[in-house]
Amino acid sequence: MLSIAKLTLDLEPVLQGVDRMPVIGWEIESHNRNVKQVSYWLQISPDENFSTVIFDSGKVNSETSNNLDVGEISLQPSTRYFVRVQVQDNHGQTSDWCSAAYFITGLLNSGWQAEFISAETPADKNSSATTSLRKSFAINNAGDIAFAVLHVSALGLYEFHLNGQKVGNDELTPGWTSYHHHLLYQTYDLTGLLQSGENVMGAILGAGWFKGDMGFTRDRNYYGEQTALICQLVIHYKDGRKDIIYSDSGWKGNNSPILFSEIYDGEIYDARKELSGWDNKDYPATSWRPVNIVRYDKTTLTAQGSCKVRQIELLNPQEMIITPEGDRVIDFGQNLSGWVEFKATGRAGDQVILRHFEVLDANGNVYLDNLRSAKQRVEYTLKGDGEEIYHPHFTWQGFRYVKVEEYPGEVNLDNFTAIVLHSAMEPTGHFACSNPDLNQLHHNILWGLKGNFVDVPTDCPQRDERLGWTGDAQIFCRTASYLMQTRNFFAKWLTDLRFDQTPEGGVPHVIPDILDGRCGEDRLLSGGGTHSASAWADAAVINPWTMYLMYGDTRVLENQYGSMKGWIDFMQAHAENNIWRYRLQFGDWVALDAKEGSYFGATPNDLTCTAYYAWSTLLFAKAAKALNRQADHESYLALHHAIVRSFQEEFFTPTGRLAARTQTAHILALYFNLVPDAFRQRTTDTLVELLEEQGGHLVTGFVGTPYFCHALSQNGRAKEAWALLLKDDFPSWLYQVKAGATTIWEHWDGIKPDGSMWSADMNSFNHYAYGAVGEWLYRVVAGIEADEQQPGFKHALISPLTGGGLDWVRAGYHSVYGEISVQWKVIGEDAQGKTLRLDVGIPANSTATISLLAADSVPETDGVDFVRNATGLTAEVGSGRYQITYVIKE
Questions:
Q1: What is the CA radius of gyration of the chain?
Q2: Which residue among the candidates 27, 746, 775, 785 is catalytic per the annotation?
Q3: Catalytic residue (one of 465, 720, 775, 785)
Q4: 487-500 vs 554-574: helix crossing angle, rounded to 10
Q5: What confidence category does residue 159 fall into, taking pLDDT thresholds of 50, 70 and 90?
Q6: Is 387 annotated in the active site?
Q7: Active site (annotated) includes residue 405
């Protein structure tokens, strides 16, 4: 039977607010093998019964089932549209119409009638208190409403209310962007929530990223000095009428019981100051003050359809700890980003005070030093009216532990819950194996993503930083995209990268950029500048290319093309004989081969810079080809070849020795294919020598670590790659696991073997960069690799690497075509070798190449025809499930 399992719009089942027609995709299910779509029929309608169709493709003979761009369609603003499809396959079967997906349009070209309104004045620029806004309006007969949609945003953070209830389930809206260029607004379906008679819209506004205390410089008012709300409610009636209710000078404002709310420092809430019913009808708002109109460029407003921050999951406390110093500490068992929600009963004026932190020190006491100046403190004052429930609003914390400084009565763990916050992304990857330490490592990598993908890809979620460092995001991008659907998350962030680039094409160290002009006192950035560091700035190219590779969508490439080209041209403008470096470079950041007291690894910056210059130029040339920009493809491919030649002339001796004798230098040369063919074996052997000199340990930092296992396994040294991954003493990935980590650390020795801490000034225990080894687990150990000639896993490359003493591996990746599954298991072993069973699943309308590395024979082929090549046995397969038994001779 043929069916459509899921239809997506920009890879999402629902989009609430779009400025343009999304790309459409669908997953096909069939019990047959070798299923290919031969045609589709797509319809778009403003009603879910499809009684009126505004787009009808008719039968289209095509295999295309993803990233379908139907072109320009005349869409109406503030309107809901439904999309459905049916398909026919090469087995002569036709599916039913699928369940419809839907999207809601934003304001499109109709424009904003609303104004930005504020209960603050410029005199409040240093205030961290929140304010409330409200407006009452009447509806004659709510039964006449066909559809009602709200568009809303803020300067600062907002929480929107209607008739006594919070609207939607998003948090920290409208998120963090390069506000002067790109301010997101959210869209909510309010149909059924409006009532006949009086209705009340209201909002609470906090400082957030817009005017709050941000960055390690602890400045504020980066984008403005007043919080402000903008909203526009569009009501469609069944008879064709339309009403628009919007923010204007007729609204009223007041103070809020949230007396203080800052992202780093937490929140102070006094329940005694609550204005009961303020967001509902019949509330006497006579004492509320008039609002101010705030002038702000409304052309920056852009609809956000998906990937907003939400409450994703709940964690219960694991235990209550009384520390040697006598502190009461709740352990949630997992380092996370989010809130603690608590219940409390007491008298008016009683308080709950919580401090959030990541680790206990060597003596088992509360450790706050690595938070630097961030307080991560929540203070709640009870109103004394029975059981009270609270969690913060406009802040979040990075923590595993919570110190209970004050609490009325006995601290009962049942009264505390950790709420995990991060951008809403569909999970796509899973990995498990016979080694529990590797399973915990995978868990830690995943939770590193959860902890840091809070609207922007932050470096860490706990200290006074939480910035979108480009290097961290670039390093981890491929791993993240196996774990979750990151296309829309990165598309948003990359838009801000594009806006924040310098006129010359330089890429800031952090996106959104709040460092420029603010780092005059910083010992590194004051002299070196705040943009254009190799491996950091290369996010401008590597991240869009990764989105294309993983999802097959050219839209991100198109949107970022000018940015990508600008970065390559910037490097070319500052290169001499194709050797590139520029001002401050982070190099192999925090590598263990750095000099004592230095953050900078031993690998020379000109080598690191030129290696990335070559790599990004190659990827950009490929992007140009993918977009059919042939002239750019040829020009930049020629530039790439010239850079490689210069790299080889500069950094290799005539006899093939790489001048910089560091692990990272050899890793980059190998992985970026910068090694002359004649010298590849020597370069690989030297890398192994450098590894052996460290007792099989890495000493690499942010630049070398992500590619270490790849550089080994791609060059015939799989045994060494496995050994490196499985090391469990310092320094290694599993050292952190053995130390009880539940996320990835910033430093290999964040907690040293003797229990002491690495320097407190920069020692996050939730810092995902070294978790980039996760892509090796998926791409190599499970062997699920994308084919750049048919991206988005239209054609997958399946070549699992067995070894490491593992008995089995079970992994999967849910591509845009459906689930790709791989399971390998050792089912026999003797003097002749190992016998393995491989189970592979390939989704409909896609194909794969299955490679059995080092295979000697295939006793059970499951109907698959294998041919021998240099690496083992290979077969081409279509969709379906396959179970293969093969033998590896050792």
A1: 28
A2: 746
A3: 465
A4: 40
A5: very high
A6: no
A7: no
